[in-house]
Amino acid sequence: MRRTLGIGTALALALGLAACTTTPDSPAPTSPVVQLGAPGEPNRTLSPDEAGAITEPQHTELDADFMLDMIHHHDQAIEMTALVEKRTDDRDIHLLAERMSASQQDERTLMVSWLQERGVPVNDQGHDAHASGEGAMPGMLSDEQMAELEAAEGDAFDRLFLVYMIQHHEGAVQMVDELYAAGGGQEPATDQFARHVESDQGIEIARMQQMLAERAG
């Protein structure tokens, strides 16, 4: 996936300054700030005034919408993992669900804090409506799919849980892709969280695909 970095996150301090000596009265040497060029373009050393004017990118409405939507996305995943306890005795499914529930709840807490720190209302009716039904977020299970999962037991539940959770996780990764494609995710905290979601859920998708293949065999 290709990322376009904002100027605030695309800076590097030049390395390998020649050794020099200073006296107590002379100012310490400073490292030039280099702005990394776009692919195929050269880097550019910023002037002291340009370097001093650099500020970190701030969050945008795209970032806030992403966090609000992802909270609802996580809520459904937590609801799905809660079904495991009474519907299967498979130890691997139980361990998987416990890990997912813990990580998704921790991430949910982080997202709520992110919104509160930036003065964004956490309870947004528009995003509540977007959580399910027509035009729902990527990967979200429909009411019919949730009912099917709730009604299943044993081996049938195990397979259905894996299939639907893979669908759910792939939707979360798609949401990250869409955030960056729209120009969001430039604020460092948002970028860090989105990359974490992408990496963590990608690892879990691979694990669930393996578990599903084992049960199919």
Automatic annotation (TrEMBL):
<dbReference type="InterPro" id="IPR012347">
    <property type="entry name" value="Ferritin-like"/>
</dbReference>
<feature type="domain" description="DUF305">
    <location>
        <begin position="63"/>
        <end position="212"/>
    </location>
</feature>
<feature type="signal peptide">
    <location>
        <begin position="1"/>
        <end position="19"/>
    </location>
</feature>
<keyword id="KW-0732">Signal</keyword>
<dbReference type="InterPro" id="IPR005183">
    <property type="entry name" value="DUF305_CopM-like"/>
</dbReference>
<dbReference type="Pfam" id="PF03713">
    <property type="entry name" value="DUF305"/>
</dbReference>
<protein>
    <submittedName>
        <fullName>DUF305 domain-containing protein</fullName>
    </submittedName>
</protein>
<feature type="region of interest" description="Disordered">
    <location>
        <begin position="23"/>
        <end position="51"/>
    </location>
</feature>
